[in-house]
Amino acid sequence: MNESSVGEMNINDDTQSVEAMLTALGDPMRRKVFAFLRSCCCAVAVDEETGEARPVCSITVGEVCCAVPVAPATVSQHLKALREAGLIVTERDGKYIRCGVDPRALDRLAAYFSTDTNCC
Predict the structure, then answer these.
(1) Each residue of 69-79: b (16+ CB within 10 Å) or e?
(2) Is the pTM of this model over 0.70?
(3) Contact by Cβ (8 Å): 20, 30
């Protein structure tokens, strides 16, 4: 594979990643759940060596369920969709599951909507 095709593949992968995020955020209740998580300032640590993200001192899925006016099973499904789209990270902490917004997802979305494009 030559250098330019590798660059194209990265751009396409990133575009697909952003498309998955936008699709997940297309649901109004998912946007509410995501906005709630963002407003909680849930800390997420990113390991610089492995690139793995994990919630630190963040809220639990149960706390999200209490804050969003839908059934807990529905909240769980919305959290799953947000996690699969790469918008949030979750981690089991004993009997709890903690969750938080992945800061890398916010960076990808910001870069996607950046005005630093060469159009027109």
Answers:
(1) eeeeeebeebb
(2) yes
(3) no
What would the pLDDT profile of 22-72 be if each residue is shown by its tens digit?
Answer: 999 999 999 999 999 988 866 677 777 777 777 766 788 999 999 998 999
Fill in the DSSP letter of residue 27.
S
Write the DSSP assignment of 55-91 as a string of letters: EES-EEHHHHHHHSSS-HHHHHHHHHHHHHTTSEEEE
Which domain, by its residues, includes 27?
A: 3-112
Q: Cα separation of 9 and 27, whole Å?
A: 28
Q: What is the count of structural domains for the chain? A: 1
Domain presence at residue 119: no
* CA–CA gap between residue 107 and residue 120 (Å, rounded): 25
Q: State which H helix or E strand residue 94 sits in.
A: none
CATH number of the domain within which 64 lies: 1.10.10.10
The residue among 67, 66, 59, 55 whose CA lies nearest residue 91 is 55
